[in-house]
Automatic annotation (TrEMBL):
Transmembrane spans: none
Record keywords, A-Z: DNA damage, DNA repair, DNA replication, Hydrolase, Magnesium, Metal-binding, Mutator protein, Transferase
Protein known as: 8-oxo-dGTP diphosphatase
Pfam families: NUDIX_4
Cofactor(s) required, per the database record: Mg(2+)
PANTHER family for the chain: 8-OXO-DGTP DIPHOSPHATASE (PTHR47707), NUDIX HYDROLASE FAMILY PROTEIN (PTHR47707:SF1)
Chain ranges of the Nudix hydrolase domain: 2-129
EC number: 3.6.1.55
Enzyme kind, highest EC tier: hydrolase
Residues that, per the record, bind 8-oxo-dGTP: 22, 33-36
GO MF annotation terms: 8-oxo-7,8-dihydrodeoxyguanosine triphosphate pyrophosphatase activity; 8-oxo-7,8-dihydroguanosine triphosphate pyrophosphatase activity; 8-oxo-dGDP phosphatase activity; 8-oxo-GDP phosphatase activity; metal ion binding; transferase activity
Species name: Ketogulonicigenium vulgare (strain WSH-001)
Family: Belongs to the Nudix hydrolase family.
Keyword 4Fe-4S: no
Length: 130
């Protein structure tokens, strides 16, 4: 089974977390996910996330602003996903969907209203505990 490493982040402001909707045409289209993406060869998870936050949302974050929150380990039919989820409360800029994706500040107590990839569901208690 192929192991795929993805870095993701919960951007948290007050009691809200930023979710991004996967665009039509991609795998798991329409589901709400944490911003992030595949870790490229030679990248640390933090460096990958800083790059993805710029590419996907147009914001700047530093490695020191990323703290470990939880991780997902989930078998999809064609690969196994290992995804550290970081917490970030401090960044520069205003997030906007730079790749045409919808984004939303979801109330941490209303995450059930956002259909998410199956890998993400075990991560939600860590968020609610914040
Ligand atoms: N960024 C992100 N990816 C997630 C989450 N949950 C989850 O299962 N994934 C999966 O992790 C994989 C990598 O995400 P990615 O953001 O780099 O993938 P991508 O947009 O290039 O999609 P692709 O796999 O269609 O090429 C995808 O298969 C995605 O479905 C999540 O909360 N955030
Ligand atoms: Mg991505």
């Amino acid at each position: 089974m192929k192991l795929v490493l993805v870095a993701a982040v919960a951007l948290v402001k007050d009691r809200r977390v930023l979710l991004a909707q996967r665009p039509a045409g991609k795998s798991l289209a329409g589901l709400w996910e944490f911003p992030g993406g595949k870790i490229e060869p030679g990248e640390s998870p933090e460096v990958a996330l800083i790059r993805e936050l710029d590419e996907e949302l147009g914001i700047t974050a530093s490695a020191q602003s990323l703290s470990p929150l939880a991780f997902a380990s989930h078998s999809y039919p064609d690969f196994h996903l290992l995804m550290p989820l970081y917490l970030c409360r401090d960044w520069q800029g205003t997030p906007h969907g730079r790749e045409g994706q919808a984004i939303e500040w979801a109330d941490i107590n209303s995450l059930d209203d956002y259909p998410m990839p199956p890998a993400d569901l075990p991560l939600l208690p860590s968020l609610r505990a914040l």
